[in-house]
Amino acid sequence: MGIHVIVGGQWGDEGKGKIVDYFSDNADIVARYQGGANAGHTVFIGEDQFVLHQIPSGILREKTRCLLGAGMVIDPIELTREIEELQERGIRCNDQIGVAYNAHLVLPIHKILDGISEDANDEQFIGTTRRGIGPTYADRHGRIGVPAHLLLDRTGFEEAVQTHLRHANRIVEKIYGQPTHQFEEFREQLERAREAVSPLITDVSNEILTALDQDNHIITEGAQGVMLDLDYGSYPYVTSSHPGTAGVSVGLGVPPNAITRSTGIFKAYCTRVGEGPFPTEIDDKDKSVRLREAGGEYGATTGRPRRCGWFDGVLAKYSIAINGFTDICITKADVLSEFDEIPVAENYESQNGFLNVQKLDEVTPSFTNYPGWKTDISGATSFDEFPDAFQDYLAAIERISGAPISLVSVGPERNQIVVR
Ligand code: GDP
Ligand code: IMO
Ligand code: MG
Question: Which one, of 318, 76, 337, 362, lies nearest residue 200 by Cα?
Answer without folding.
Answer: 76
